[in-house]
Amino acid sequence: MRTVLAVMAVVATAIAQVPDPGFAPAAGPLLPDVVYDPAIPTPDRFFGFSWGDEVTLHADIERYLQALAAAAPDRLRLVPYGSSLEGRTLYYAVVGSPANLRRLDAVQAGMQRLADPRGLADAEADRLIADLPAVAMLANGVHGDEPSGTDAALFVLHHLLAARGEAVADAVLRECIVLVDPLQNPDGRDRFVHGTRAARGRWADATPVGAEHSQPWPGGRPNHALFDMNRDWFALTQPETRARVRAFQQWWPLVYADLHEMGGNSTYYFAPPAAPLHDEITATQRQWLDRYGRNNARWFDRFGFDYFTRESFDSFYPGYGEGWPTFHGSVGMTYEMASSRGLVFRRKDEKLLHYRDCIRRHFVASLATVETLAGGAKDALRAFLAHRRAGVARGDGATKAWVFPPVGDRTRLARLMNLLAEQGIEVARTTAPWSCAAATPLAGGEPAAREFPAGTFVVSAAQPASTLATVLLEPHARLDDAFLAEQVRREQKRRDTEFYDLTAWALPLLFGVECWRAGAPAPAGLAAVAAGAATSGAPTLRAEPPKVAYVVAWGQNGAAALLAELLRHGVKARILDDPFTHDGVRYPAGSFVVKVHDQPADLHARVRDLAAAHGVTPACADASWVDDGPNFGSNEGHAPKVPRVALLWDRPTNANSTGWVRHLLEQRYGVPVSPIRTHDVGRAELERFTVLVMPEGSGYQQGLGSGGAAAIKDFVQRGGVLVALGSASRWLMEKDVALLASEAEPRQKPKGEAAAKDADAPGDADAAKPADKPNDKPAEKPADKPAAADKPFDYDAAIRPDKEPPPNTPGAILAVAVDREHWLGFGYDGAASVVHDSSHIFTPLKLDRGANVAIYEAPERLVQAGFVWQESRKQLPRKAWLVHQPHGRGHVVAFAEDPNVRGFADGLNLFLLNAVLGTAGR
Known about the structure:
This protein is α+β, with helices and mostly antiparallel strands. The protein is globular. The protein starts with a helix and ends with a helix.
């Protein structure tokens, strides 16, 4: 590839007979007056083109990293730390002085000791701080179509290794260990690079809407699975993220800079961040944010670079590459450079932004960052130690621990505990019953004594990672009063608000597990739970097969995974639609039965292995008699079909929503998915599928065309199941589609305003009165109404739009009431917690049109976490979240919001699985 790139550059030079419309000035040095060691290859010399003249691919970057490691083995160690979904190796480079590089194991051990300071004497802590270098991490390219950080990282590495007698490089190598992750998302980057190169002509094109800058779906931002990995840090759904989190915990870097790009008409952003900042970001960390920002500004002033701070990019959500490290005690920061999104971009001010401009600014910001750390290395080490010690001391507060009893869905509970443990939060399990003197439900209430059984999971507040545990487990993250007041003011003027992301993410709510705050210390003798070691505690299936059937209780995610895999392996099952009692055990509606007759010969082995894998234990029924409820052969049940799922793919679908649902079905539940591009739906053989999923997206009418829309309606009429997620449901409501008898409500007007307008307008009844007949008695003249001029002019009402959508809710967690008698609500005990992250408010269905399976709760129970506008608090209650409407022999299942949001709402999985596994054929 290096040869190909060199040839491309030579050919481009040879054919340039006329001026290049996007001509970039000759590339000068990134830093003037620096002498470099020629033994260390420069990116220019290695790749065969001037820096900024091309966007490199992962394979090029990989080879250059290997060349650097070979050229300077005493100062750089290349570490492969994971692999992308498409098989590309993830690397970080460790850079330091020869003396520091020789003792990397000792450095890691020292940072581990500071990260867990329990029992660490002050004298030993002082010795460690005096001895240890400060660890920095520069991370680049988590969004594949934000490429300049990656190429800048290569120059940062070259500078640190090759600069001779340069003060910054010398100080950084002496005082620091610098970890450089040049490319966090290689799959997305290569997708972007191939796309922009394929659209390039004789010259790079600066036209903002030109094909070089307009990416084909899904774009380079997400990874292969179409996840935004800068929102995945605590959800840990992707292998790239999990590998990165493991690497972080091996080193515990004191600063984590995550380099991005933004719109090409902007300049450069670095810390301090915009409001809101999470309350758990300490005063010391805020001082460090200011310290880094000031030195960045000094460097930018030196080169005449524009920048801004405290605008747009907040530090509130813990799933960012800046947020998660911060809550572990690091100083996490986002850097954003205006993007050329290719080689050259014409800005609104008519200036050309070149790719090398982007590289240079990220290069300068990176050097400024590590210089700041080098100049305050010991202060940074002390601040990190203090943060981790404060985490341990948090156990002295009102909440001593978060307690998770083994009730409800234990497979979901085990998954949550493993998720916490994987990111460095200590989890333990009681080995005996625990009589807790004071426990409070997470939702609130008065403390009271409570007995927790053996096997209860405990997350102690007295641990180094207590801050992160608090952020992830507690429902309410406080938003500053002044910030909220400003958002209300902006919203009233219909200006964009400054909410950047979700305002709620409490994992106990989204996983649907019971959680308590313990006001008393946890008992002694707890068993530590390592990452991946938490289990549901389900007993092993008995050795001998049952004589009649296997019976599996519904309500656990593991049971859904078991059913999906059994169906895929050709096993026949029957879902019972009413509760029943068998052999003294009460089974909820939706439980399924697998009879032993007329099944694959290895049925018992399959059931045993799959049940163990998914953490459930089917009951072995040696007799079919039930004490009450439907029998195994009752008509009050349903024989599920083997799920064959088609998924709409390509524009106008939202790439993240598409990725979330495919990942959930395929990776979590073993349901194969066939993506079908929207423009091909009209000619697809949809009759081969049982379910068609429409991810979120707007513009389906244009994307599908009349042929695609007709094919979908025919699919439903013939017996197919159409599942629409979030904004896709709005397409079903359009008059010429008419698949959903709901409406997207407009914003409600203030009380009394609509009535006043109606009173002022001519009434329909008055307009319909016939003229007086000739012989009729003249009507009495009505009393004069007050003239309009006598009324005070209502300016606010006059400027308010006649019809507009409700205000957008910035990612709050709301409660919904669930119909337990409808099969889509099976597995829920009448309630669930959902993420509301839009302006969608859908009217419920009439009884003769369908069923409202889940509706938003009453006002007093609606908001469980996060921010919701006051008018939405009034308008949302009792509106539809999940509805079912039959059509012909088929079904429409419509969600008001995407239940698969970011892959972390495990408590909502059964809604989708009920639609996919339990609807077709009803």
